[in-house]
Every structure is written in structure tokens, then in C-alpha cells.
Amino acid sequence: MGFVFFFFVSWLVTVLFAVMKKSLSFVENLFVLSIILIVSVNWSWIIFEEFKFLEISRQPLDYIAFLINRSIGIPLIIVIMLNAVKFANSKGKVYLYVGLSTVTLIVLKMIGNYLNITKLNNWNTMYDVLYFLFLHLIAYFSLQMFRKLKKEEVTMS
């Protein structure tokens, strides 16, 4: 059941990203997606495999559902939020978009727990909230860094 749900969510998020009006360029979207994917994969490896704060199901389809959410769902939801923030005309809307994407990611995490894809050992949902907010900050600052480097490259030529 978990595989079907996360497969559907991943396709839904992918289609939403494909049809939405993007405020970031293709290269900026790809850069932020890559950074978030790298952080997400390394974070999950450290938390799940090294520290064993959470346990992943040993069922093949449930494990694939975990991988789909970690590798497609989380990064794309953050990139979608980053594109939406660009159109926000007030700080309140920016906070609302960040909050909505964080709540969406937490709900997906809770559904994963409910479907026994992951099991909490020494973990709290507040840690996930902090992690997802940290991912949002990484996405924002990596985009700013990329734009600064791109601008410096153009002016140096």
C-alpha cells in the first residue's frame, strides 16, 4: 500500500512541477534540486543506517516507497515551494508557503510511519520539522549562492 501511495504522490508532485509556472530558470531548478537531493540522501543514510534513530522496513516495496519519497518527493516539494516563493509579494506569503510545504512533508513522513515504511526508535516529529525547515534554508541559500556566483562570472568576463 505504501509503495502505491508514494508512487502516486511522486507522480503528482512531478506533474505539478512540470506544469507550474516557474520563476527559476532550468539551471537554477536543477541546481537546487541536486543540492537538496544530496543533503536528503546523506541525511537519511546517517539517521537511518548509522545512528539507527529510525528504522526502514525490510519489505522491498516499502523500501522503494521510502526511496521514492526521499529522492523525488522531498526535493521536488522544496523546489516547488522555492518557485512559489518568488511570486509571493509579502513576507507573510513566504512564511505561509514554507509552512505549507513543511506541513506537507511532515504529513508524508507520518503516513510513512503509519504504513510501517519507517519506524521511530529514538526520534521525535519535531526533529523532522527542524530538518525540513533546515532543508528550506539550504535551498534558499544555495540558490542565492548560485545566483551570486553566476553574476560574478558574468561580470568577470
Question: How would you sum up this structure in a few lines?
Answer:
The chain is mostly helical.
Shape: globular
Proportion of strand residues: under 5%
Give the helix level as a range of percent.
Answer: over 70%
What is the β-strand count?
A: 2
Strand order, sheet with most strands: 1-2
- How far from one another are the termini? 54 Å
> Quick check: average pLDDT?
94
Low-confidence runs: none
- When the domains are counted, the total is 1
- Oligomeric nature of the chains: single chain
Q: Tally the helices.
A: 5
Q: Structural class per helix/strand content?
A: mainly alpha
Radius of gyration based on Cα positions = 16 Å
Largest sheet: 2 strands, antiparallel
Order of helices and strands: HHEHHEH
Task: Report on this structure.
This protein has 157 residues and is mainly alpha-helical. The chain has one domain. Helix content is 81%, strand content 4%. It has five helices and two strands. The termini are far apart.
Characteristic terms for this protein:
single chain, 157 residues, mainly alpha, two-stranded antiparallel sheet, 2 strands, globular
How would you summarize the topology of this molecule?
Blueprint: H1 2-19, H2 26-50, E1 54-56, H3 60-87, H4 91-114, E2 118-120, H5 125-156
Antiparallel strand pairs: 1-2
Helix pairs in contact: 1-3, 2-3, 2-5, 3-4, 4-5
